[in-house]
Amino acid sequence: MIIRLKESIVRQIIQSAEAAYPCECCGLIIGDQSDNAVNGSDYLPLANQHRENRQRRFLIDPQAYLDAEDSADKQGLAIIGIVHSHPDHPDEPSEFDRLHAWPNISYVIVSVNGGKAQRYRSWRLTEDRTRFDREEIQIRG
Description:
With 141 residues, this protein is of the alpha/beta class. The protein has one domain (2-140): Cytidine Deaminase, domain 2 (3-Layer(aba) Sandwich), CATH 3.40.140.10. It has three helices and seven strands, in the order βαββαβαβββ. A seven-stranded mixed barrel has the order 1-3-2-4-5-6-7. β5 and β6 (116-125) form a beta hairpin. The longest helix is centred in the first third of the chain and has 14 residues, at 7-20. The radius of gyration is 14 Å and the shape is globular. The protein starts with a strand and ends with a strand.
């Protein structure tokens, strides 16, 4: 699978990740799916609602998720991705990420070291939930 993101979405994701440091940021990518690709059209940054250990965990408010899902649906779109950062850690999914992820959605993870985004990658959980596969990111103007 390929995830296509507007350059403006990538900028917003990086800004969100750096602003949240040393805590994890989180947000949603809204878009659609076509053939073997998902196409991001908007990024919705959300507040990390996790009460403890926000440096290593994020929690999206369920109502915020439902509101975003309803809004996307009214536009003929869907939530195609979940974004979060890994402060001072690699942009690879953790075991905790695997246990809490859903198949058929993109997970964009941003590595932020010392407050500066270093790298980001996208991942997709396999149907059997045993591992994440890396997903190609294509940037559009």
